[in-house]
Amino acid sequence: MKKYLLRGFVFGVLTIVAVIGCTDSTSIIPETEENISEPSPIPGQYIVVLKGSEKNKIIPGQVSQIESVRNEIIARNNLSLDKVKDTYSHALPGFVAELDDEQLERLQRDENVSYIEQDRMITFAPPCGTPKGGPCDGGGGGGGG
User: Fold this and answer.
1) Going by C-beta distance under 8 Å and a sequence separation of 6 or more, which residues neighbour residue 47?
2) Distance CA 106, CA 12 (A)
3) What would the 3-class secondary structure string for the chain be?
4) How far is CA 120 from CA 39, 47, 94, in A?
5) CA of residue 54 relative to chain centroid, distance
6) Which of 31, 40, 60, 77 is most buried when burial is the number of CB atoms within 10 A of its CB?
7) pTM over 0.85
8) Taking a C-beta distance cutoff of 8 angstroms, is the pair 119, 47 a contact?
9) Are strands 84-88 and 40-50 parallel, antiparallel or unpaired?
10) Residues 15-27: pLDDT tens digits?
11) How many CB atoms lie within 10 A of CB 110?
């Protein structure tokens, strides 16, 4: 009986040691907040998100349809196509444009505009272990010896 208790105790201790010894105290995935700089607004540049009407639904991925709606909005509001920096057609239908305050107000009242947001510059820090990112924290923990 004593022999079985001793085996059970030894097995339990070894299991606990193995579980604790196999866990890594450092995270493989670095914290997101550490890798993103504070978004800085791009002066005079805005993201214009489009909305469709009851009879004219905007379908994500339909580039020609989104460009057509964009061009109608630009013509209706006396804007220049040269000020359009980019067009979005998948995640959300819309475009990026340089606008002054008057143009911004006109677009905000347009029936085919869902909302307008200030465009921002977001910079990600290079991941650790890359040539410009430097070494990862913790020195790798290989031990090598």
Assistant:
1) 88, 94, 95, 96, 116, 117, 118, 119
2) 73
3) CHHHHHHHHHHHHHHHHHHHHHCCCCCCCCCHHHHECCCEEEEEEEEEEECCCCCCCCCCCCHHHHHHHHHHHHHHCCCCHHHEEEEECCCCCEEEEECCHHHHHHHHCCCCEEEEEEEEECCECCCCCCCCCCCCCCCCCCCCC
4) 6, 9, 15
5) 31
6) 77
7) no
8) yes
9) unpaired
10) 776 667 665 555 5
11) 16
Q: Do 97 and 118 contact (CB within 8 A), yes or no?
A: no
Instruction: Tell me the Cα Rg of the chain.
Output: 28
In the sheet that holds 113-121, the strands lie side by side as 84-88, 94-98, 40-50, 113-121
Tally of CA atoms within 13 A in the half-sphere of 63 that contains its CB: 2
Asked whether the beta carbons of 97 and 83 are under 8 A apart, the reply is: yes
- Which amino acid belongs to residue 59? I
Residue (of 124, 126, 121, 125) closest to 39 by Cα position: 121
Contacts of 34 (CB under 8 A, 6+ apart): 125
